[in-house]
């Protein structure tokens, strides 16, 4: 394995001794393939950095990006950081008011955007379009060499804004050193230069951005999709012989549910699949192994605030249980804290590593989730077994109380998904006069299945405590995704409340965010 170069700037990850003519990015975002070498990448990132400096920005100034995935997105992020400025990727799926809030809260001096999002960027800030009629990007670039600044200790490199599911989005301040450590730690595991990474999750999300940075530093090739659809994802795997996939579980579930296209696609090139950002069910894991029998599948865990390096293999070589996220990484300190505030085998995960954020930008109203001894309180509840393997149970934010019992939706979903006819389930709480709240479920069942609400309720009662069983179950063709490609629990809670108000239970599958079975046939 080649020696990992000493990186001093998160925006300058191109290995110094690498073949600059190797393809770095294959961009499928414009309707046709665009190939860019490492030399192309370096030239454009330097040109972005030179132009930003020429505009008179001061070190530490923020620059926002509001765009779908594309080559220019990545070169701009790197150019911003290598010049000593702070990149602010913005979730373009947020409502206009939230987009405006994020850009203004960050203090961005200008905004890069694609043509489709141009009108969503504040018109009182300089806006630079990557594409479309009137694009300013080509004229903005200032070609020539550029020496990346050596980042100071804990100097901010990126603001990544959280989804804001429990209030205003919070800007997570990440330093150069935090994610250089992530890159270097992940690269130490193996030589990744031969791989072709498929990136379809949005680059404003940690999952995609960190994987793109890793692939670049490893001198690999990224196949970049503008967005995720099952069709584009499967076509890219086959056409470009992708070896490494990274996704959130709902994306893979949608891919596997596209049965006809899946059966017609050659997936034999896939060697690794890393899933994170949401729980993985037993049924989904089994379906993945059937579809990708040669692939090593990682059920991973990470957070925006503390990075994707948390768990790894067992030091004694014990096989990782299928539903476990692994054993604590040797360079990360972990502890579980029970409801009584004491160490426990079941509790909230707290972690400490060099990847932890500096803090939240401009939020004195939010209590710091970092303890006095430097541990980040994740808000995620885990269980630890006798061998030290950890299992994700759910978020404290998602937990609800029904009749005095704590219910973690993820636990109930995993139980429902062990039924052979259930592909996906999402459990949400609804108000109840007696219990306070009670669980209900939306379920995607296998095509052709005769499973009904009564049978699935009986299955739940036979396989879990009675208080966990969903009091109402609605069968749907698909589950809605939020802007980060996680399940949109808020939307389902609203829908459940409306259904119960109408006292309506559909007699046949409905569609949420997709066509009905009848329409597809």
Q: Which regions are unreliable across 5 or more consecutive residues at pLDDT < 50?
A: 504-511, 513-521
Largest sheet properties: 7 strands, mixed
Number of strands: 25
Question: What's the helix count?
Answer: 14
CATH architectural category of the domain at 400-520: 2-Layer Sandwich
Report the helical percentage.
25-40%
Kindly name the structural category.
alpha/beta
Strand order of the largest sheet: 2-1-10-9-11-12-13
At the fourth level of CATH, the homologous superfamily of the domain at 400-520 is ANL, C-terminal domain
Shape: globular
CATH class of the domain at 400-520: Alpha Beta
Our estimate of the beta-strand percent is 15-25%
What's the pLDDT, averaged over the residues?
89
CATH topology category name of the domain at 400-520: GMP Synthetase, Chain A, domain 3
Give Rg in angstroms. Answer: 23 Å
Compute the separation of the termini in Å. Answer: 51 Å
Topology summary:
Elements: E1 23-27, E2 34-37, H1 38-54, E3 62-66, H2 71-82, E4 86-89, H3 96-106, E5 108-113, E6 127-129, H4 137-140, E7 156-161, E8 171-175, H5 176-187, E9 196-199, H6 206-217, E10 221-224, H7 230-240, E11 244-247, H8 249-257, H9 259-263, E12 272-275, H10 282-291, E13 296-299, E14 311-312, E15 327-328, E16 333-337, E17 346-352, E18 359-361, E19 376-384, E20 390-395, E21 400-402, E22 405-407, H11 409-416, E23 422-432, E24 436-445, H12 453-463, E25 473-475, H13 489-501, H14 517-520
Parallel strand pairs: 1-10, 3-4, 3-5, 5-6, 9-10, 9-11, 11-12, 12-13, 24-25
Antiparallel strand pairs: 1-2, 7-8, 8-18, 14-15, 16-17, 17-19, 19-20, 21-22, 23-24
